[in-house]
Every structure is written in C-alpha cells, then in structure tokens.
Specification:
This protein is of the alpha+beta class. It contains 2 helices and 5 strands; from the N terminus they run βαββαββ.
Length: 80
C-alpha cells in the first residue's frame, strides 16, 4: 500500500509575484501553482520544503492530510 499526502497552501492577503512563483516551482514540478495557491499530492515521498517556512514567506493558510491519519491546519493571523 502506498502513502498519500496532500499539501494545500493559500495566499490570503496578496497574490504571489513571478519570482515567488518561480521559487515554488523549484520545490515541486508536479504541483498546481497559481498566484494565490500551491497544491500538491504525493503517493511516494513528500514535499521537498518545510511547510512552516512556506507559511512564513508566502502563504496565509495551510492544510495537510495524510492517509495514516495526520491532519494539520495552519493559519497566519495578524499580530494586532
């Protein structure tokens, strides 16, 4: 039985620029990447980046699901 992992990121407050999109493309050539989202699923292996760092640099929300039961939701909230 193979593993299944799903990574979804959403840019909530701004669109990503071309340079940021190019950086994200180096992380995964199979991901569906738009100016406001990054979505990728894996049956073997996993994401070649730290989700926490992606959240700090680019995104406002992240959802991770795995077939072994792990679920993670991360949301960036304003400090104020």
């Amino acid at each position: 039985m193979s593993d299944y992992q799903s990574y979804e990121f959403c840019a909530a407050d701004r669109a990503l620029d071309r340079q940021q999109l190019a950086v994200l493309r180096t992380i995964s050539t199979r991901a569906h990447i738009t100016a406001t989202s990054f979505t990728s699923t894996y049956q073997w292996g996993g994401l070649k980046a730290d989700p926490w760092q992606l959240m700090e640099r680019y995104f406002g929300a992240h959802l991770y699901l795995a077939n072994w039961g792990t679920q993670r939701l991360i949301v960036n909230l304003p400090a104020e």
